[in-house]
Amino acid sequence: MRLYPPIQFDSKFAQSDDVLPDGTPVRKGDRVTYHPYAMGRSEGIWGRDCLDFKPERWLRSGSGSFCPPVNPFEYPVFQAGLRVCLGKEMALVEMKTVAVSLLRRFHFNPTTSSDDHHHPRFSPGLTATFSGGLPVLVRQRN
């Protein structure tokens, strides 16, 4: 979800004058928009391998246990702070349950076009979709 968040961007309106952490002034009524899609690809947040899908970045070295980002504002897929999504924990449980159920029964292999550099193309919109879908070959496990 870091590389392909379900919501590409989100906006908030200031209820009163404020100052962002970087010193940017925000006046009452100003619209502030953040872009989780771009933030998930930010080298300044995620390092030089920011475009790589690396599940191990979420695991503690040694124990292998899940380690969420230290700063939830750097990974705002479920928003952060006072506006954190009320359904976040349920969504994560559902996602894990579905993933385990499917991965136990099937092999999934993304299919590629004749172009070896084929990557899913994000399609603009309120919710995330892939332009042309995401072709996947699904085979039942033995």
TrEMBL record:
<dbReference type="InterPro" id="IPR001128">
    <property type="entry name" value="Cyt_P450"/>
</dbReference>
<dbReference type="Pfam" id="PF00067">
    <property type="entry name" value="p450"/>
</dbReference>
<dbReference type="GO" id="GO:0005506">
    <property type="term" value="F:iron ion binding"/>
</dbReference>
<keyword id="KW-0560">Oxidoreductase</keyword>
<dbReference type="GO" id="GO:0020037">
    <property type="term" value="F:heme binding"/>
</dbReference>
<dbReference type="InterPro" id="IPR036396">
    <property type="entry name" value="Cyt_P450_sf"/>
</dbReference>
<comment type="similarity">
    <text>Belongs to the cytochrome P450 family.</text>
</comment>
<keyword id="KW-0408">Iron</keyword>
<keyword id="KW-0349">Heme</keyword>
<dbReference type="GO" id="GO:0016705">
    <property type="term" value="F:oxidoreductase activity, acting on paired donors, with incorporation or reduction of molecular oxygen"/>
</dbReference>
<protein>
    <recommendedName>
        <fullName>Cytochrome P450</fullName>
    </recommendedName>
</protein>
<keyword id="KW-0479">Metal-binding</keyword>
<dbReference type="GO" id="GO:0004497">
    <property type="term" value="F:monooxygenase activity"/>
</dbReference>
<keyword id="KW-0503">Monooxygenase</keyword>
